[in-house]
Amino acid sequence: MRPQSRAACAVPARQTTVPDGKARYRRGPTDVLTQTSRWLMSIFLNKRTTRMNIAFFSSQPYEQPFLEAANRNHHHTLTFLTETLTPETVRLAAGHQAICVFVNDQLSRPVLQALAEQGIQLIALRCTGFNQVDVEAAQELRFRILRVPAYSPHSVAEHAVALLLSLNRKTYLAYQRTKDNNFTLDGLMGFDLYGRRVGVIGTGKIGAAFARIMLGFGCQVLAYDKVPSPQLQALGVPFLSLEEILEQADVISLHCPLLPETHHLIDAAALARMKPGAYLLNTSRGGLIDTPAVLEALESGHLGALGMDVYELEDDFFFADWSDKPLPDADLNALTHLPNVLVTSHQGFFTREAMEQIADTTISNLTALEQEHLPEKALVVG
């Protein structure tokens, strides 16, 4: 008897439906791959597919879609927690292989020790700054920590400009008036930004972006940074000492990181050097300014206006709704009620473009942590 042909031995094709709703035909194993080659391929794919359980602390509903979209090709399991990471909430990380934190989460020595005891040593920051990290403790405990080294610098720079324009032209006051059918102009007078001296303290990507916008307004931009920006120098921006900036600028915008040497960079002495009536903007870190000293300068009239997207003690207040209860922070309460102060709750980064970039980088960093391929620019501890 002649053996059956190869076609006669083949397993018949079967119809199946995939998520897009279209019919597909699955061929028999002899038509595509042998059982052995399929098995080897599955081993290869499983080796390349990273699947970690990751706890996201301080998670907000608006960021979850961006993170889930970024995770589609990484296949991690994401657990979104609204709680801020503290010594009291660190227990929520149990059962995860990695955690992801934001600006107000605490990575102090006690928290890091508790994480290490749970077997967690991979941490991703979904922010650029890492002043919340006890770097020495993290190194001792052999953590690997990555951050988002950069995202749309225009998001924060443009928000700083928005604060300046609104403070100067009193649009926030005009908005409230017209809602009450008050169309008078008393108390709404501003000044031309054209020709004014704008001091930029810190000329990294965000500071440089802010400086370029101010140049577009026709302002005289003055800059201070330990490492001057060649791009701004090429545009004719002079780099001066901090003291010269304070004494000459009509508007000062802070864009430097929070470090021991920049903590309370704007204190009573610095404020005394500033021109009477000067404006101060802070979209970087709250600890750059001495809040009581700034309040005193505002109340005395020496400081003309303050625009702030960050606050030194924001951890307990920002990203939360306090509208139905008294605000227990006297300084923050005073600032929000002064007519020449505009406070926003750390929303400078909050644009669609920035959120997409932050999510993509964060998820990629988590995969890099698991695979031990640490990108140097993102490395905090490793």
TrEMBL record:
<feature type="domain" description="D-isomer specific 2-hydroxyacid dehydrogenase catalytic">
    <location>
        <begin position="54"/>
        <end position="376"/>
    </location>
</feature>
<dbReference type="InterPro" id="IPR006139">
    <property type="entry name" value="D-isomer_2_OHA_DH_cat_dom"/>
</dbReference>
<comment type="similarity">
    <text>Belongs to the D-isomer specific 2-hydroxyacid dehydrogenase family.</text>
</comment>
<dbReference type="Pfam" id="PF00389">
    <property type="entry name" value="2-Hacid_dh"/>
</dbReference>
<feature type="domain" description="D-isomer specific 2-hydroxyacid dehydrogenase NAD-binding">
    <location>
        <begin position="161"/>
        <end position="348"/>
    </location>
</feature>
<dbReference type="InterPro" id="IPR036291">
    <property type="entry name" value="NAD(P)-bd_dom_sf"/>
</dbReference>
<dbReference type="InterPro" id="IPR058205">
    <property type="entry name" value="D-LDH-like"/>
</dbReference>
<dbReference type="Pfam" id="PF02826">
    <property type="entry name" value="2-Hacid_dh_C"/>
</dbReference>
<feature type="region of interest" description="Disordered">
    <location>
        <begin position="1"/>
        <end position="21"/>
    </location>
</feature>
<dbReference type="InterPro" id="IPR029753">
    <property type="entry name" value="D-isomer_DH_CS"/>
</dbReference>
<dbReference type="InterPro" id="IPR006140">
    <property type="entry name" value="D-isomer_DH_NAD-bd"/>
</dbReference>
<protein>
    <submittedName>
        <fullName>D-lactate dehydrogenase</fullName>
    </submittedName>
</protein>
<keyword id="KW-0560">Oxidoreductase</keyword>
<keyword id="KW-0520">NAD</keyword>
<dbReference type="InterPro" id="IPR029752">
    <property type="entry name" value="D-isomer_DH_CS1"/>
</dbReference>
